[in-house]
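Reviewers asked in the last cycle whether our approach scales beyond single polypeptides. To address this, we selected a multi-component target totalling 910 residues and predicted its structure end to end. The input consisted of the following lines:
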Amino acid sequence: MEKTRKIILQEHEMPTHWYNIAADMPHKPLPPLHPATREPIGPEALSPLFPMELIKQEVSADQWIEIPEEVSDLYTLWRPTPLYRAYQLEKALDTPARIYYKYEGVSPSGSHKPNTAVAQAYYNKQEGIKKITTETGAGQWGSALSFACKHFGIDCEVYMVKISYQQKPYRKLMMNTWGAQVIASPSEKTEAGRKILAAQPDSPGSLGIAISEAVEQAATHEDTKYSLGSVLNHVLMHQTIIGQEAIRQMEKAGDLPDVVVAPFGGGSNFAGIAFPFLHLNLTQGKNIRCIASEPSSCPKLTKGVFRYDFGDTVGMTPLLPMYTLGHNFVPAPIHAGGLRYHGAGVLVSQLLKDKLMEARAHHQLECFEAGILFARTEGIIPAPEANHAIATVVAEAKRAKEEGTRKTILFNLCGHGNFDMAAYEDYLSGKLQEHELTEEEIQSSLATLDTPMIE
Amino acid sequence: MEKTRKIILQEHEMPTHWYNIAADMPHKPLPPLHPATREPIGPEALSPLFPMELIKQEVSADQWIEIPEEVSDLYTLWRPTPLYRAYQLEKALDTPARIYYKYEGVSPSGSHKPNTAVAQAYYNKQEGIKKITTETGAGQWGSALSFACKHFGIDCEVYMVKISYQQKPYRKLMMNTWGAQVIASPSEKTEAGRKILAAQPDSPGSLGIAISEAVEQAATHEDTKYSLGSVLNHVLMHQTIIGQEAIRQMEKAGDLPDVVVAPFGGGSNFAGIAFPFLHLNLTQGKNIRCIASEPSSCPKLTKGVFRYDFGDTVGMTPLLPMYTLGHNFVPAPIHAGGLRYHGAGVLVSQLLKDKLMEARAHHQLECFEAGILFARTEGIIPAPEANHAIATVVAEAKRAKEEGTRKTILFNLCGHGNFDMAAYEDYLSGKLQEHELTEEEIQSSLATLDTPMIE
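The resulting structure, written as structure tokens, was:
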């Protein structure tokens, strides 16, 4: 064979540190505020929910943080992940652009989520924690944490949004197979759940409610902590192993991307691949465009405001400086469940504010069209979340053709769609509908905010 | 890290030829017989169904057959596949045995099946074929062929057993996503289907009926051929890339297996990993035990007879010399759908007859117990078929512990269980039942045979 399709790293070439972009940012993120007093809070405020080592990482100013041996060791179950040159997609698009993708779907749970789940379970184990609670919507995060907890011998309790629990039984079964307890939320198990059920016995649940239940369990039980799959700084940092590997792989390919693209939900997917490239921009004068791809039905980066807001719907979490549509915003039930979140993580929000990255919004139909093209050329059927990045890549590749430029595009294929085939059926059968979000809907959600403004 | 978990090959290290074990067998397989005249038939009898190049491979005496460039090129979408050292499984079993597994679940459709699907689609394309028909039960084979046909621009028509079509909608949708037409069998589309439906309008279908429909469509339409996912010599040969890679990887690990294990349905899974090791036995005086693991509810290798029999239920195919439970045998509806076949491929049958390989049968419950242990230690949730091999491996590892021997065991982890979570639910909820096949049931199936005896 003349050409190499996959650029493969050996285990000993795996990065040894996570990258903390906070160290390199020209404007550091603003501090979180107490939900009630609205005064800046310190890291100790997080200690009922998280182990100290993760809290230290959350506020760390160090540029690099060493990956513990036991975490690295478990990473090797699926890492380093392959980097592909998308020859067949390039051909189908008839583009002069070179397209590469980093494939995170080779992990046991099928997405990038175990990169942080393993790290979080490890630090909890180190501090003697016996149980971790979390919430999950579509199920990617819950299954990643179930897998990680099983390895370290920690009980895992997942509050799964009731409607997802009913509609995605395979994701629930995957968590059970790894030994986790999965509870349809709202549940009778928590004060928060019981309150909701008393008011609305047939509540389909929401991510906001599930977070409340998981947080309550952690806050009220000794030896129990809570875990989050995106948004927070330490979560984003754990994902930077993706981009660091990609840099080494691009070097082996003798290429460097002009554009880096990733889907955007809370930020961990985007941070994972893009932050190490932004490091090259911030410290070595490179000029690599990093683009976050979000659904046009949940456009916090392209249409939200930069303002303090709550991480949850109920308003229990600290106030964070973020691009947000307002914590009361209810996104349309698109198939990319992992991108249905009202706000963006703090680090990404500051980077966008400082114009150090870009964002694009895509309609659901455009995303599935791109995903089907990808499946029929490159073979892998992508997760609906990943289709957003592919839509951006297709647009960039078409532009390269129009302009006659030979740019290099890299994107994060964050997971496979094996558990999302119902979404593809909706698309193929013509049932998939677009939710046209109006400016009025966004404004009416933002109008409910009474949280502090910035500047 | 001190130890390497995965042994990874680069694309340029991928084998360039398929291995044809027929060249090295001390006793060559007996010829196929015409279903009506019961006289030996030549390769030309297969030409209505298969392209000439595949027929040549079916009867080839060459030891090695070169893999065409376009096939190798598509293989690189997922090949070479990783070879893992199962450190965590070893630890859980507290065994002195070293356990390795070759992981074929990284292919786009999630199993080893694309290794032959790609080759078959390629040769059909070369001979101007416009459409390929096939049957599928659980859906692994149908989805592999759908993926391969899409790449080479061939229409793919899959007759899917109606009960599976209804119970496994995600597999059907996967095939649709790759552009295949999936038809619930029995269907109104064929003479065979119409006949069955006239007699039994609510027939749940069977693999035998689906084969009849697919074969009829190929035989009665120009530019249309038929394709099979196991049993035949050329299909088994295409899979030998698995074992060849494994040998190179074991060499890199500085180890060589004492025992090689694979699940057994029609033979392609077992042949894929074991034939290249049997080559070492047959030509270099090695003494590597190769064990086929079958369900105790469909025990053709351990309880069947070596005799001429039909490949299908209706009796349309040539008579093949095989270990069989009789073509009228109806296996219990176990979850390992890919192992529910009455007979063994010709090459494997002759090898077993000549005691050059071994076979083991396992109960379904034992297999799922082993599969859960694997998922909770090694992370990957295996396909139910793969669990049979794991059950054999666990038994061998326990024996090594009892005997205090430090043997090396390698097995083929042929696919992931992402589409089989309902089977795990049955196991975890205690609903999974064992079907105890009696000697009487086997004898009564064999008593219906009037096909030629051997010896």
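DSSP finds 18 helices and 15 strands in chain B. We regard this as preliminary and will revisit it once experimental data from Aim 1 are available.
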